[in-house]
Design goal:
Distance between the termini: 13 Å
Structural class: alpha/beta
Radius of gyration: 16 Å
Shape: globular
Strand order of the largest sheet: 1-4-5-6-7-10-11-12
Strand content: 25-35%
Order of helices and strands: EEEHEHHEHEHHEEEHEHEHEHH
Number of helices: 11
Length: 238
Protein backbone atom coordinates (compact mmCIF):
# COMPACT_ATOMS: atom_id res chain seq x y z
CA UNK A 1 0.00 0.00 0.00
CA UNK A 2 1.37 3.39 -1.05
CA UNK A 3 1.88 5.70 1.94
CA UNK A 4 1.90 9.49 2.30
CA UNK A 5 4.10 10.11 5.35
CA UNK A 6 4.50 13.43 7.17
CA UNK A 7 7.99 14.29 8.42
CA UNK A 8 8.51 15.28 12.05
CA UNK A 9 12.09 16.59 12.28
CA UNK A 10 13.34 17.25 15.82
CA UNK A 11 15.90 19.87 16.82
CA UNK A 12 16.38 21.37 20.30
CA UNK A 13 13.10 19.80 21.43
CA UNK A 14 11.09 21.41 18.62
CA UNK A 15 9.76 20.41 15.22
CA UNK A 16 11.72 22.24 12.53
CA UNK A 17 12.24 22.31 8.80
CA UNK A 18 15.67 23.06 7.35
CA UNK A 19 16.60 24.35 3.93
CA UNK A 20 18.60 21.59 2.16
CA UNK A 21 19.39 20.05 5.54
CA UNK A 22 21.61 22.95 6.62
CA UNK A 23 21.78 23.13 10.40
CA UNK A 24 21.28 26.87 10.76
CA UNK A 25 18.79 27.45 7.92
CA UNK A 26 15.52 26.91 9.78
CA UNK A 27 12.43 27.62 7.66
CA UNK A 28 9.77 26.45 10.14
CA UNK A 29 9.58 25.86 13.89
CA UNK A 30 6.88 24.45 16.22
CA UNK A 31 7.13 24.02 19.97
CA UNK A 32 5.39 20.70 20.73
CA UNK A 33 6.50 17.70 18.63
CA UNK A 34 4.06 15.27 20.26
CA UNK A 35 1.09 17.53 19.49
CA UNK A 36 2.33 18.01 15.92
CA UNK A 37 2.58 14.23 15.51
CA UNK A 38 -0.92 13.71 16.94
CA UNK A 39 -2.29 16.26 14.47
CA UNK A 40 -0.96 14.27 11.51
CA UNK A 41 -2.41 11.03 12.88
CA UNK A 42 -5.78 12.69 13.43
CA UNK A 43 -5.70 13.84 9.79
CA UNK A 44 -5.20 10.26 8.63
CA UNK A 45 -1.44 9.60 8.57
CA UNK A 46 -0.72 5.87 8.96
CA UNK A 47 3.05 6.36 9.38
CA UNK A 48 5.26 9.20 10.66
CA UNK A 49 8.85 9.88 9.66
CA UNK A 50 10.74 11.12 12.73
CA UNK A 51 14.31 12.41 12.38
CA UNK A 52 16.53 13.48 15.28
CA UNK A 53 18.42 16.29 13.54
CA UNK A 54 20.62 16.92 16.58
CA UNK A 55 21.56 13.25 16.35
CA UNK A 56 22.35 13.55 12.64
CA UNK A 57 24.60 16.57 13.17
CA UNK A 58 26.22 15.49 16.45
CA UNK A 59 26.32 11.72 15.95
CA UNK A 60 24.21 10.91 19.02
CA UNK A 61 20.43 10.92 19.42
CA UNK A 62 18.96 13.62 21.70
CA UNK A 63 15.19 13.07 21.53
CA UNK A 64 14.54 9.47 22.52
CA UNK A 65 11.91 10.48 25.11
CA UNK A 66 9.89 12.40 22.49
CA UNK A 67 10.32 9.57 19.97
CA UNK A 68 9.06 7.03 22.54
CA UNK A 69 5.97 9.12 23.21
CA UNK A 70 5.18 9.46 19.50
CA UNK A 71 5.78 5.72 18.97
CA UNK A 72 3.18 5.00 21.66
CA UNK A 73 0.36 6.18 19.37
CA UNK A 74 1.74 5.99 15.81
CA UNK A 75 3.76 3.76 13.52
CA UNK A 76 7.10 5.52 13.19
CA UNK A 77 10.30 5.16 11.23
CA UNK A 78 13.20 6.91 12.93
CA UNK A 79 16.60 8.18 11.82
CA UNK A 80 19.26 10.73 12.65
CA UNK A 81 22.40 9.81 14.51
CA UNK A 82 21.82 6.06 14.71
CA UNK A 83 25.49 5.21 14.50
CA UNK A 84 25.45 1.96 16.49
CA UNK A 85 23.21 -1.08 16.83
CA UNK A 86 22.55 -0.74 20.56
CA UNK A 87 20.70 2.50 19.82
CA UNK A 88 18.73 0.80 17.03
CA UNK A 89 17.67 -2.04 19.35
CA UNK A 90 16.73 0.45 22.05
CA UNK A 91 14.50 2.26 19.56
CA UNK A 92 12.77 -1.03 18.75
CA UNK A 93 12.21 -1.51 22.49
CA UNK A 94 10.62 1.96 22.58
CA UNK A 95 8.09 0.87 19.95
CA UNK A 96 9.76 2.19 16.79
CA UNK A 97 8.74 0.15 13.72
CA UNK A 98 11.74 0.89 11.45
CA UNK A 99 15.17 2.41 11.99
CA UNK A 100 16.91 4.39 9.27
CA UNK A 101 20.62 3.86 8.72
CA UNK A 102 22.48 6.55 6.80
CA UNK A 103 26.15 7.14 7.56
CA UNK A 104 26.60 3.72 9.16
CA UNK A 105 25.18 2.03 6.04
CA UNK A 106 28.11 3.45 4.08
CA UNK A 107 30.82 3.01 6.72
CA UNK A 108 29.91 -0.39 8.23
CA UNK A 109 28.38 -2.38 5.40
CA UNK A 110 28.97 -5.90 6.77
CA UNK A 111 27.59 -5.04 10.21
CA UNK A 112 24.52 -3.29 8.81
CA UNK A 113 23.84 -6.23 6.51
CA UNK A 114 24.07 -8.63 9.45
CA UNK A 115 21.72 -6.47 11.53
CA UNK A 116 19.25 -6.21 8.65
CA UNK A 117 19.22 -10.00 8.28
CA UNK A 118 18.26 -10.30 11.96
CA UNK A 119 15.56 -7.59 11.74
CA UNK A 120 13.83 -8.24 8.42
CA UNK A 121 11.69 -5.36 7.08
CA UNK A 122 12.64 -3.19 10.07
CA UNK A 123 15.74 -1.57 8.56
CA UNK A 124 15.49 1.33 6.12
CA UNK A 125 18.62 2.40 4.24
CA UNK A 126 18.87 6.15 3.64
CA UNK A 127 20.00 7.01 0.13
CA UNK A 128 20.75 10.71 0.50
CA UNK A 129 21.77 12.10 -2.88
CA UNK A 130 23.79 15.28 -3.27
CA UNK A 131 24.90 16.16 -6.79
CA UNK A 132 24.71 12.49 -7.75
CA UNK A 133 26.71 11.14 -4.81
CA UNK A 134 25.64 9.68 -1.45
CA UNK A 135 25.81 12.21 1.40
CA UNK A 136 26.75 11.20 4.97
CA UNK A 137 27.36 12.72 8.42
CA UNK A 138 24.34 14.99 8.52
CA UNK A 139 24.69 15.59 4.77
CA UNK A 140 27.95 17.47 5.37
CA UNK A 141 30.17 15.03 3.48
CA UNK A 142 29.78 12.92 0.36
CA UNK A 143 30.95 9.37 -0.32
CA UNK A 144 32.17 8.05 -3.66
CA UNK A 145 29.06 5.91 -4.12
CA UNK A 146 26.15 6.82 -6.38
CA UNK A 147 22.63 6.29 -5.00
CA UNK A 148 22.11 3.16 -7.08
CA UNK A 149 25.47 1.71 -6.05
CA UNK A 150 24.51 2.08 -2.39
CA UNK A 151 21.10 0.48 -3.01
CA UNK A 152 22.70 -2.49 -4.78
CA UNK A 153 24.77 -3.29 -1.67
CA UNK A 154 21.59 -4.02 0.31
CA UNK A 155 19.00 -4.90 -2.31
CA UNK A 156 19.31 -8.68 -1.77
CA UNK A 157 18.10 -8.26 1.84
CA UNK A 158 14.60 -7.61 3.19
CA UNK A 159 15.05 -3.87 3.72
CA UNK A 160 13.45 -0.70 2.41
CA UNK A 161 15.10 2.41 1.00
CA UNK A 162 14.51 6.11 1.53
CA UNK A 163 15.71 8.13 -1.44
CA UNK A 164 16.14 11.83 -0.65
CA UNK A 165 17.29 14.31 -3.26
CA UNK A 166 19.13 16.87 -1.12
CA UNK A 167 19.53 19.21 -4.09
CA UNK A 168 15.81 20.08 -3.84
CA UNK A 169 15.16 19.22 -0.17
CA UNK A 170 13.40 21.97 1.79
CA UNK A 171 13.15 24.29 -1.20
CA UNK A 172 9.46 23.47 -1.91
CA UNK A 173 10.41 23.71 -5.59
CA UNK A 174 9.24 20.37 -6.95
CA UNK A 175 10.88 17.02 -7.62
CA UNK A 176 13.48 15.83 -10.13
CA UNK A 177 11.42 13.15 -11.84
CA UNK A 178 14.08 11.36 -13.87
CA UNK A 179 16.29 10.74 -10.84
CA UNK A 180 13.39 9.28 -8.83
CA UNK A 181 12.28 7.00 -11.65
CA UNK A 182 15.86 5.81 -12.19
CA UNK A 183 16.34 4.78 -8.54
CA UNK A 184 12.93 3.14 -8.16
CA UNK A 185 13.40 1.16 -11.37
CA UNK A 186 16.86 -0.05 -10.35
CA UNK A 187 15.81 -1.43 -6.97
CA UNK A 188 13.86 -4.58 -6.07
CA UNK A 189 12.92 -3.54 -2.51
CA UNK A 190 10.38 -0.84 -1.53
CA UNK A 191 11.60 2.72 -2.16
CA UNK A 192 10.19 5.75 -0.35
CA UNK A 193 10.91 9.17 -1.80
CA UNK A 194 11.61 12.51 -0.11
CA UNK A 195 12.89 15.91 -1.19
CA UNK A 196 11.13 18.70 -3.04
CA UNK A 197 7.63 17.19 -3.03
CA UNK A 198 5.36 20.20 -3.48
CA UNK A 199 2.13 19.14 -5.18
CA UNK A 200 -0.39 16.34 -5.42
CA UNK A 201 0.88 15.78 -8.96
CA UNK A 202 4.40 15.19 -7.59
CA UNK A 203 2.95 12.49 -5.32
CA UNK A 204 0.98 10.92 -8.18
CA UNK A 205 4.11 10.77 -10.34
CA UNK A 206 6.06 9.06 -7.54
CA UNK A 207 3.26 6.53 -7.05
CA UNK A 208 3.14 5.84 -10.80
CA UNK A 209 6.90 5.30 -10.81
CA UNK A 210 6.41 2.30 -8.52
CA UNK A 211 7.61 3.80 -5.23
CA UNK A 212 6.13 2.56 -1.94
CA UNK A 213 5.45 6.03 -0.57
CA UNK A 214 6.52 9.62 -0.05
CA UNK A 215 7.84 11.56 2.92
CA UNK A 216 6.68 15.19 2.92
CA UNK A 217 7.91 17.96 5.19
CA UNK A 218 8.30 21.57 4.12
CA UNK A 219 5.36 21.65 1.70
CA UNK A 220 3.02 20.59 4.53
CA UNK A 221 4.44 22.94 7.15
CA UNK A 222 4.41 25.94 4.82
CA UNK A 223 0.85 24.98 3.78
CA UNK A 224 1.85 24.82 0.12
CA UNK A 225 0.37 21.33 0.14
CA UNK A 226 -2.68 20.27 2.16
CA UNK A 227 -2.30 16.89 3.84
CA UNK A 228 -6.01 16.21 3.30
CA UNK A 229 -5.39 16.39 -0.46
CA UNK A 230 -2.08 14.51 -0.34
CA UNK A 231 -3.46 11.55 1.62
CA UNK A 232 -6.11 10.90 -1.06
CA UNK A 233 -3.38 9.69 -3.42
CA UNK A 234 -2.94 6.62 -1.19
CA UNK A 235 -6.28 5.35 -2.53
CA UNK A 236 -6.17 6.66 -6.09
CA UNK A 237 -5.51 4.54 -9.14
CA UNK A 238 -2.76 6.46 -10.93
Amino acid sequence: MFRVIPAVDLKDGKVVRLRQGKENEVTFEAENPVEVAKKWVEKGAKVLHVIDLDGAFQGRMRHEDIIAEIASFAEVQVGGGIRDFKVAKRLFDLGVKRVIFGTIAVEKVDEVREFAESWERRVMIAIDSKKGRVAVKGWKETASLTPIQLAEIYDDLKVSFLYTNIDVEGLVSGIEREKIAEVVKAVRNPVYVAGGITSVEDIRFIKRSGAAGVVIGSALYTKKLKFEEAIKVEYEKV
